[in-house]
Amino acid sequence: MASSAGLALCGQTLVVRGGSRFLATSTASREDGQPVDKGSDTILASTFSKSGTYFALTDDSKRLILFRTKPWQCLSVRTVVRRCTALTFTASEEKLLVADKSGDVYSFSVLEPQGCGKLELGHLSMLLDVAVSPDDCHVLTADRDEKIRVSWAAAPHSIESFCLGHTEFVSRIFVVPDHPELLLSASGDRTLRLWEYRSGRELHCCHLTSLREPAEPWGDERFAASRITYWSQDGCVALLCDCIPAIYVFQLDAARQQLVYRQRLTFRHRVWDIAFEEGRGLWVLQDHREAPLVLCRPVGGQWQAAPEDAAVEKVSAHLRGNWAMLEGVAGVDVGFSGLYKATFDNVTAYLRKKEERLQKRRQNPAAGPNGQAKKMKPGEASLRCSS
């Protein structure tokens, strides 16, 4: 599912999207940002390639737009079959994989920007995320029906494994760059799980409900992760959930194959998106015009907002100058609330009504099946008396 506003970061290139526009800027203090208007339709998903050379986005008019970032140039505008839910580039940056609402994954050539899409694989339910292994050997897909599928990229019909264990839709998946055999996943069941995805083996499960405080107003709400981001410098994993103004921070212990909970960062305003920048810290995009961006850094083992930073002030100034592109999505609810399983308990009602009918029959044995007295045919009473 698309977030109301998004943050994409690669190297020192920062992209903030909102509505039908995105602001491309640099975290280096000497460079300015430029707003780019790609049309009148809402951006659904966006992503950078690994090197940051390419940037792609898709909108609700089923357009797939590919950019080159050095310098910024639109390479192609292609059409997808259905509205997309997630994008990712292959590690070689030769293809762009597009997951859509019908459960299909299409590949589009980056080297041939005008080429048509090719159907690679399909699910029976809606896809919510797609990822590629660092060696481009496997394509990983997450769907609404609680499954994570690991397919061979060269022959997507050949399934390597399934990662099963979630009890609700899988909202996000993330292959750990430093440990390419490991996968992180988050779900509407309010868990963060660690997998060895080639075998489908679950290594660790963290229940986010166990981390909440009793006094928190959102303690009983259903929520799912809208972003998983990773900082290789300290092996930190940051998790953003769609209905909670907080960020959960974990540390990946690859040797013990587990996630260690470190802290929770809380905010007064709604957090739209997060992204790590290596060597700098955690960027937080929030619904607050005066301070739309917050940069968090580790201090004494704890993450906290940096008091003053020239890059934060520069990018925040650009956002305030282009705040109109974010105002339209400030109150839009585009979370995962419509994806939860709906349960209908009609058995209890049936058993209750059946018990009521049985009680009426016990109280009035002569009553018929509908509780009404049974009528006798003419002459039936005299025949009974004579017998």
From TrEMBL:
Superkingdom assignment: Eukaryota
SUPFAM superfamilies the UniProt entry points to: WD40 repeat-like
SMART domains on file: WD40 (SM00320)
Pfam families found in the cross-reference section: WD40
UniProt keyword terms in alphabetical order: Nucleus, Repeat, tRNA processing, WD repeat
Cellular compartment(s): Nucleus
Main location as per UniProt: nucleus
WD repeat boundaries on the chain: 163-205
The protein's annotated pathway: tRNA modification; N(7)-methylguanine-tRNA biosynthesis
Disordered, as annotated region: 356-387
Family: Belongs to the WD repeat TRM82 family.
Its job: Required for the formation of N(7)-methylguanine at position 46 (m7G46) in tRNA. In the complex, it is required to stabilize and induce conformational changes of the catalytic subunit.
Protein name per UniProt: tRNA (Guanine-N(7)-)-methyltransferase non-catalytic subunit WDR4 isoform X1
Gene source species: Acinonyx jubatus (Cheetah)
